[in-house]
Amino acid sequence: MKDRSLLRRAVAKPQIAVAVGQACRRTQRHDPAVLRGRPMRRFSLASLLKEAVDGHQGWGRQWRAPDPKPAYDVVIVGGGGHGLATAYYLATVHGITNVAVLEKGWIGGGNTGRNTTIIRSNYLYDESAHLYEHALKLWEGLSQELNYNVMFSQRGVLMLAHNAHDVQSFKRHVYANRLNGIDNEWLSAEECKAFCPPLDISPDVRYPVVGGALQRRAGTARHDAVAWGYARGADARGVDIIQNCEVTGVRRDASGAATGVETTRGFIRAGRIGVVAAGNTSRVMAMADVRMPLESYPLQALVSEPVKPVFPCVVMSNAVHAYISQSDKGELVIGAGTDQYTSYSQQGGLHITTHTLDAICEIFPQFTRMRMLRSWGGIVDVTPDRSPIIGRTPVDNLFVNCGWGTGGFKATPGSGHVFAHTLATGQPHPINAPFTLDRFRTGRLIDEAAAAAVAH
Ligand SMILES: Cc1cc2nc3c(=O)[nH]c(=O)nc-3n(C[C@H](O)[C@H](O)[C@H](O)COP(=O)(O)OP(=O)(O)OC[C@H]3O[C@@H](n4cnc5c(N)ncnc54)[C@H](O)[C@@H]3O)c2cc1C
């Protein structure tokens, strides 16, 4: 349509005829067959200015759409942020590029593109604090590393305390985090209000705010950009990202070792297989006869109509069960809880979202008249201790990265980084060494649920 109007105007203005010719040449450049094997185009001020002049028609595809090869050194099941990050670090840190990421739908279409994007590292136990802080440090340089703007915004995450138990628990977090070199500070109710002006701290409400723990380096990022940035970076180094390719079986040899995966696009042989399938992990691992200590629940989120910037940070409240931030588009991004029963339906109960909205209106009465625009759900994979599982499985050549439950987006870079190490070397990275599958047999749990009861 745009080219046709250009053509009409070109009759009157000869310089536009040149533009029409350029547009046709660009269309040829966008053909995936033409693009295959081309080096990744870098984003820079110079390329942005050039495209601004050219009408942003020349950016091209950001990653290829290859057919699966018969065999790879590593096959990753699941094209969410964690799977794509794993592929990226396999290529960049370990030089392993004969890698395929198999995604049954579209990349980032699982929980990666459905979450409320809260990023923080103020977990209680040393093991978790090291893991999430490793991720947070990678977040801090991620846009530069990927040459892709993941819109990481360190606007601060404020966790509200409403009672004596909250105060004790959050102060314990503050001290534990500081001992681990992680920023976290205690604020009085008035300091909370100064940091987040829309907050109602009047004492005569059902759950008065009595203080809060603030991690200033925490914040949000644009979730689908994270998937796209890792996909682009991995693809440029030779990783095949194969969408619409569902894994339907895991083939094992006589010794029991995994040798490849059956897919909707045929059998693919693999030296090593990494399963990173979030809510579907139990299903994929069952294909290799491995029973996982996981339960899959729908978790919901919702956004309001867009409004002017009114909300400067992220606020979470466990006691009232609500958390909220504002997106760059202006929508209030609100996270709800999980359903109380397991399910693979990517939608949850209406009563869960209405309960959350009740809680939001309790803490921010000025939002009572806002209209909600849309809601959705994702399937989260929850372990008994609410900590992830990253490592080997009882099946040789089969590795798993799962159990991130309601809070794995924040871990994406760190999770991919340590899982790539595990896949490349066959051994855990020191940071993921405690997060074994067999801790549920040995009892060495990392019980963040009991420590904090914080979902995200
Ligand atoms: C509503 C909601 C809010 C959340 N809020 C936060 C938050 O604020 N902060 C936070 O840190 N975390 C949050 N989370 C959790 C976070 O989104 C996840 O922990 C994280 O995104 C998991 O990433 P992933 O790459 O492992 O999974 P996914 O992004 O789900 O990727 C797994 C992929 O595997 C694919 N797959 C599954 N089975 C197969 C198969 N058989 N063959 C091929 N592919 C397959 C799926 O299609 C999917 O794309 C939230 C989650 C939800 C649902």
Automatic annotation (TrEMBL):
<keyword id="KW-0560">Oxidoreductase</keyword>
<keyword id="KW-0285">Flavoprotein</keyword>
<keyword id="KW-0274">FAD</keyword>
<feature type="domain" description="Rhodanese">
    <location>
        <begin position="74"/>
        <end position="118"/>
    </location>
</feature>
<dbReference type="GO" id="GO:0008115">
    <property type="term" value="F:sarcosine oxidase activity"/>
</dbReference>
<dbReference type="InterPro" id="IPR006278">
    <property type="entry name" value="SoxB"/>
</dbReference>
<protein>
    <recommendedName>
        <fullName>Sarcosine oxidase subunit beta</fullName>
        <ecNumber>1.5.3.24</ecNumber>
    </recommendedName>
</protein>
<dbReference type="InterPro" id="IPR001763">
    <property type="entry name" value="Rhodanese-like_dom"/>
</dbReference>
<keyword id="KW-0288">FMN</keyword>
<dbReference type="GO" id="GO:0005737">
    <property type="term" value="C:cytoplasm"/>
</dbReference>
<dbReference type="InterPro" id="IPR006076">
    <property type="entry name" value="FAD-dep_OxRdtase"/>
</dbReference>
<dbReference type="GO" id="GO:0000166">
    <property type="term" value="F:nucleotide binding"/>
</dbReference>
<keyword id="KW-0547">Nucleotide-binding</keyword>
<dbReference type="Pfam" id="PF01266">
    <property type="entry name" value="DAO"/>
</dbReference>
<dbReference type="GO" id="GO:0046653">
    <property type="term" value="P:tetrahydrofolate metabolic process"/>
</dbReference>
<dbReference type="InterPro" id="IPR036188">
    <property type="entry name" value="FAD/NAD-bd_sf"/>
</dbReference>
<comment type="similarity">
    <text>Belongs to the SoxB family.</text>
</comment>
<keyword id="KW-0963">Cytoplasm</keyword>
